Amino acid sequence: MKVAVAASGETLEAPIDPRFGRCPYFVVVDTETMQFTAIANPGGALGQGAGIQAAQAVVNAGADAVVAANFGPNAYQALTAGEVAIYAASDGTVRQTVEAIQRGELPPIGNATVPSHFGLGGRQAPVNWGSAGLGGGGGRGQGGGRGLGGGRGRGGRW
Predict the structure, then answer these.
(1) Is residue 46 within 8 Å of residue 24, measured between CB atoms?
(2) Which domains are assigned to the chain?
(3) pTM for this one?
(4) How does pLDDT run across 46-101, given as a tens digit for each residue?
(5) How far is CA 90 from CA 19, 56, 64, 81, in A?
(6) Quick one: CA dihedral 65, 66, 67, 70, positive or negative?
(7) Dihedral angle at the C-alpha atoms of 52, 5, 60, 114, nearest 10 degrees?
(8) Neighbours of 99 (CB within 10 A)
(9) 87 DSSP β-pair partners
(10) Which helix (H) or strand (E) holds 3?
C-alpha cells in the first residue's frame, strides 16, 4: 500500500504537518518496502482550493491512503471521490505514522475534521466544529455596546 503523509519535511523523519491542504510536502511511502518519495504540495500557497489541489496531488501520486491531523470538507470529498482512505494523526514522524498504520493503530476517519479554510490560520480546531460556534459574536455584553453599564458593570445609567 502507498501512504501519503502530510509532512513538514521531505524525509521519513519529518514531523507530520497538521494541515492537509497547506502542508509543505507529502511523503509518499510504500508500506511494504519503506521506499518513499517526497512531493511538494501544490495547494500549500493557495488562498482557495488548497484542499482540492492537495487531494489531486495525492491521487496523482498513486496513494491508497493519506494521513494528516486535519481534513476540510472539500479535501475530504475529493479524496473519497479518488478512493483514497483517510487517516488522522496529530503527532510523530512520517515513519512512526506509517508504522502505526501497519500495526492497525490508526482507524480511517469517516468525515471532515475541520471547517473550510481552516489551514489559513486564525482559528483553533473546535472539538465539535459541526455544532460549535466559530466566534461570530461582537464581543459585547447584554447592553449591546450601548454603554448602559455606567462604568459600574450593572447595565443601568447612574
Answers:
(1) no
(2) 2-103 (3.30.420.130)
(3) 0.71
(4) 667 788 999 999 999 999 999 998 888 889 999 999 999 999 998 999 999 999 99
(5) 10, 22, 20, 24
(6) negative
(7) -20
(8) 17
(9) 67, 108
(10) strand 2-7
